[in-house]
UniProtKB/TrEMBL annotation, chain A:
Organism: Secundilactobacillus kimchicus JCM 15530
Signal peptide extent: none
Residue ranges the record marks as coiled coil: none
Keyword terms of this UniProt record: ATP-binding, Cell membrane, Membrane, Nucleotide-binding, Phosphate transport, Translocase, Transport
A Gene Ontology biological process term: phosphate ion transmembrane transport
Pfam family for this entry, one: ABC_tran
SUPFAM superfamilies: P-loop containing nucleoside triphosphate hydrolases
MF-aspect GO terms: ATP binding; ATP hydrolysis activity; phosphate transmembrane transporter activity
Protein name: Phosphate transporter ATP-binding protein
Residue span, ABC transporter domain: 31-270
UniProtKB/TrEMBL annotation, chain B:
Gene Ontology cellular component list: plasma membrane
Official protein name in the record: Phosphate transport system permease protein PstA
Taxonomic lineage of the native organism: Bacteria, Bacillati, Bacillota, Bacilli, Lactobacillales
One example of a Gene Ontology biological process annotation: phosphate ion transmembrane transport
Organism: Secundilactobacillus kimchicus JCM 15530
Pfam short name (any one): BPD_transp_1
Keywords per UniProt: Cell membrane, Membrane, Transmembrane, Transmembrane helix, Transport
UniProt GO MF annotations: phosphate transmembrane transporter activity
Automatic annotation (TrEMBL), chain C:
Key word tRNA-binding present: no
PROSITE patterns found in the cross-reference section: ABC_TM1
Subcellular location, record wording: Cell membrane
GO cellular component, one term: plasma membrane
Protein name per Swiss-Prot or TrEMBL: Phosphate transport system permease protein
NCBIfam families, A to Z: phosphate_pstC
SUPFAM superfamilies for the chain: MetI-like
Main location, first listed in the record: membrane
Length: 275, 295, 308
């Protein structure tokens, strides 16, 4: 391996450098993991991923494919329960939610998720938004209408769909579908929004609209986003974590990660040398 | 032999064989239509059968077939749906699931006459339902369950996992996700499976001989109270179906025009199955388009 | 720690309750089917075995006896319940129809997948689907009115017998075996074919030496599946085989199968009588054979799943 000239200030190759953002920046921690490990059968996909997430911040998780960043994200609201063994603590506002007594449905209502591929239901746009609300007992038409409008507006798709709310959601373009999925997720007013490479299936124009949406949502929601797109992480996130081989190798404010990372491997990755 | 020559010979033989199969179907259908179609008129389709004289119809048998089909689907669909959902959405990959799957496979390969005999033993004799529509419907349910369960399971499996994740991520239970999101999306193909199974039920006879019985007592089509013995809706009356009727009049050989009646009844059976097949495809396609397209 | 949040998260939500209910309901549906299967096996076995346990018929005599006449007692004071004629009848029609159907099924399947997939999809697939859908009594009826008289004219005798039964079964199982063979051929990867053609093989050499070899387990499964259907088919066979419980000596003489004796006999006997128990023993043989066919299919599947 060679040492990249810009990485002079790096101190280590593989030693973890995870900054305590509460201590260092006074961040208000809404979610953190302690001793989190994820196993698929015998294969441990995540060994050392512990991070803290600040309230009303956007945190980006970056790293090469198979580095464990998606596994980590999906463990946070226990979407991996069926396929993997998740050990350790997930502290959501101080409450460990990685316990069998925790009502996982109530927890997921607060920690929502948007996926890589847009997955609107085979229903109308309106029903996509109201579906979960109705299941939770919200039935008043006026209330539902109101929520549909505000969440579609927050997701920056209202103007495009307001005239055909009864149209099938499957008839929308990919970018619109993904913003609809975000609207669907925020309609139930979660606390935290997890996004698993939400722009990877979108074209550049849709991607930029999506990024605008996320930046605006930041005022009301805590956002954790997995992305392959380095520029995207740099553009929208406050903090960035770099994952490699099942480990969160480096975690710091985004500008630091992209300009003066401490770990050489992080530097190589953000410089585009591998991944 | 020269490879080129053997290639030619094989090619010719394959064309011959494929043609032969088409010929078989053409001959079968042709025979049924040519001998059966002239029989089909309103009188034949609506009047009761006559055992000893010519000129009877198949009215009661036809009604029985449809009623039995309806009852069977009413009983078997919820069970198959539950089983299909559990198998596709919940069943862990362990020995219990393995045993269950094996059991379903065994049930699907059991000769229908054995299923009928079991139905006879349990419902006709033990539960004292006698030869009745209800006994027949239960026997046909056993016969129908494995295939319907499998077809529902496959329909559910065809719906992308991202849809399930979408529901779960909104804090919904798996059950709500499956019943409210996955099931509606799988509806077109589930319906196709149900209609195709209806075709099988409609033509089945061996499982019914000793359960629904081989007699078709006269029905009073003005009496729709299911508790009256002559009511068409009474589920406790014996009910010979169309398929059983064909078998019976041919094995007894008393009815003078048994051959003509059988031809007509066969034509009705085959046309019904044909209609079921076409309907299955058509409805499935239409529903699918309706679900996915812009309204 | 947020106490209020903790409480909210620990409370069982409506969704959690629904989940338990739904899981329970769907599992009970599955359990019901499974229990039914066990019940069928148990009941048929207990009825079928009573011939040997309560009526003290020797099991070997049952399998090898050539005379079936349960209401008559033989010189040893034992009822005449030799099931050999029916067992032989069932096996002969099954094996013969499978032997005849196999080349046709494979040929058609090859035509559909290798020679002319376009015509296969447009013509042959609907044809096979329709043939599968035709009810078995209709096959029986046509056998009775067309095949039996034709056999009578050509070969003499009554026309009823093994030959007619075999012919009807052949037509009946042909579409099933064909469509399963098509599925088997379709699973052979495309690159197998391309590799063979690239080596200079003719199309027939490619099919014969590569595709058929690779698809052998699937084709065997299809054939056994067809045999299971033929063995268990009742009415169509019963209508054309003649129903004489005699050890078959000619393809054209009336004979009988397990299913044909069952369908004609069970209604004429009294539940619990010797004659009735003997019929249940025949049903048990049918059941056991169906389990064996199932087992064979599984064994082929397991073997076929191994790397080639």
């Amino acid at each position: 391996m060679f040492v990249n000239p810009t990485s002079q200030q790096t101190t280590t190759w593989l030693e973890r450098n995870v900054v305590d953002i509460k201590q260092k920046f006074g961040a208000n921690i809404i979610l953190e993991t302690k001793g989190l490990r994820v196993l698929y059968g015998d294969h441990e996909a995540l060994h050392e991923g512990d991070l803290q997430f600040g309230e009303h911040q956007i945190t980006a998780l970056i790293g090469p494919s198979g580095s464990g960043k998606s596994t980590y994200l999906r463990s946070l609201n226990r979407m991996n329960d069926d396929v993997a063994t998740v050990k350790g603590q997930i502290l959501y506002r101080g409450v460990d939610v990685n316990r069998s007594e925790i009502d996982v449905y109530e927890m997921r209502r607060r920690i929502g998720m948007v996926f890589q591929r847009p997955n609107p239901f085979a229903k109308s746009i309106y029903d996509n938004i109201t579906f979960a609300l109705k299941r939770r007992g919200v039935t008043k038409k006026a209330v539902l209408d109101e929520i549909v409008e505000t969440s579609l507006k927050q997701a920056a798709i209202w103007d495009e769909v307001k005239d055909d709310l009864n149209k099938s959601a499957l008839a929308l373009s990919g970018g619109q579908q993904q913003r609809l999925c975000i609207a669907r997720a925020i309609a139930i007013k979660p606390d935290i929004l997890l996004l698993d490479e939400p722009a990877s299936a979108l074209d550049p124009v849709s991607t930029s609209k999506l990024e605008d949406t996320l930046l605006r949502l930041k005022d009301n929601y805590t956002i954790i986003i997995v992305t392959h797109n380095m520029q995207q992480a740099a553009r929208i996130s406050d903090y960035t974590a770099f994952f490699n081989q099942g480990t969160a190798l480096e975690y710091d404010v985004t500008s630091k990660i992209f300009t003066r990372p401490k770990v050489a491997l992080t530097n190589n990755y953000v410089a585009g040398d591998f991944g | 032999m020269n490879p080129k020559l053997s290639n030619k010979i094989a090619n010719g033989a394959l064309y011959g064989i494929a043609g032969f199969i088409v010929l078989i179907l053409a001959a079968l259908l042709g025979y049924i239509i040519i001998t059966g179609l002239p029989m089909l008129n309103w009188h034949f389709l609506t009047t009761p059968a006559r055992a000893f004289t010519a000129g009877g119809g198949i009215g009661i048998q036809l009604f029985n077939s449809f009623y039995l089909l309806l009852l069977t689907l009413l009983i078997s669909f919820p069970i198959a749906l539950g089983a299909g959902i559990y198998l596709n959405e919940y069943a862990p990959n362990n020995w219990v699931t393995n045993v269950v799957r094996t059991a379903i496979e065994i049930l699907s390969s059991l000769p229908s006459v054995v299923v009928g005999l079991f139905g006879f033993l349990i419902f006709v004799v033990q539960f004292d339902f006698g030869f009745s529509i209800l006994s027949g419907a239960f026997a046909l349910t056993f016969f129908n369950l494995p295939l319907l369960t499998r077809s529902i399971e496959e329909s559910l499996a065809a719906i992308s996992n991202t849809q399930r994740e979408g529901g779960l991520a909104l804090g919904l239970s798996k059950w709500e996700t499956v019943t409210r999101i996955i099931l509606p999306a799988a509806l077109p193909s589930i319906l196709t499976g149900v209609i195709l199974s209806a075709g099988r039920i409609f033509g089945e006879a061996a499982a019914l001989i000793f359960t629904a019985g081989q007699s078709a007592p006269a029905l009073d089509f003005t009496d729709w109270n299911p508790f009256n013995i002559s009511s068409p809706l009474n589920p406790m009356r014996p009910a010979e179906t169309l398929a059983v009727h064909i078998w019976k009049i041919n094995s007894e050989g008393i009815m003078p025009d048994a051959k003509a009646v059988s031809s007509g009844a066969s034509a009705v059976l085959v046309i019904s199955v044909l209609v079921f097949n076409i309907l299955a495809r058509f409805i499935g396609k239409r529903l699918y388009q309706k679900l996915t397209s812009a309204k | 720690m947020d106490k209020k949040l903790q409480e909210q998260l620990l409370k069982k939500s409506k969704a959690a309750k629904l989940e338990r209910l739904g899981r329970g309901v769907s599992f009970s549906a599955l359990l019901l089917i499974t229990l039914t299967v066990f019940a069928i096996i148990l009941f048929v076995a207990s009825k079928g075995l009573s011939t040997f346990f309560s009526n003290h018929v020797n099991f070997w005599d049952f399998l090898s006896g050539k005379s079936w006449n349960p209401s008559v007692t033989n010189s040893h004071g034992q009822p005449e319940v030799g099931a050999l004629p029916m067992i032989l009848g069932s096996f002969i029609v099954t094996i013969l129809s499978a032997i005849i159907a196999t080349p046709f099924a494979i040929g058609t399947a090859i035509f559909m997948t290798e020679i002319s997939p376009r015509r296969g999809a447009a013509i042959l697939q609907p044809v096979t689907e329709l043939l599968v859908g035709i009810p078995s009594v209709v096959y029986g009826f046509i056998g009775l009115t067309v095949v039996v008289p034709a056999v009578r004219t050509v070969f003499g005798g009554s026309g009823f017998g093994i030959f007619s039964g075999t012919f009807v079964l052949f037509v009946m199982i042909l579409p099933t075996v064909t469509s399963m063979t098509v599925d088997a051929l379709k699973t052979v990867p495309r690159y197998y074919r391309e590799a063979a053609l690239a080596l200079g093989a003719t199309r027939w050499q490619m099919i014969y030496k590569v595709v058929l070899r690779a698809a052998t387990p699937g084709i065997l499964t299809a054939i056994v599946f067809g045999m299971a259907r033929a063995f268990g088919e009742a009415l169509a066979v019963q209508m054309v085989i003649g129903n004489a419980a005699l050890v078959p000596t000619s393809l054209f003489a009336p004979a009988s199968t397990l299913t044909s004796v069952l369908t004609t006999g069970i209604g004429n006997t009294v539940m619990g009588s010797m004659q009735n128990n003997a019929l249940w023993s025949l049903a048990l043989v049918l059941l056991v054979m169906s389990l064996i066919f199932n087992l064979v299919i599984r064994l082929i599947g397991r073997k076929g799943a191994m790397p080639k």
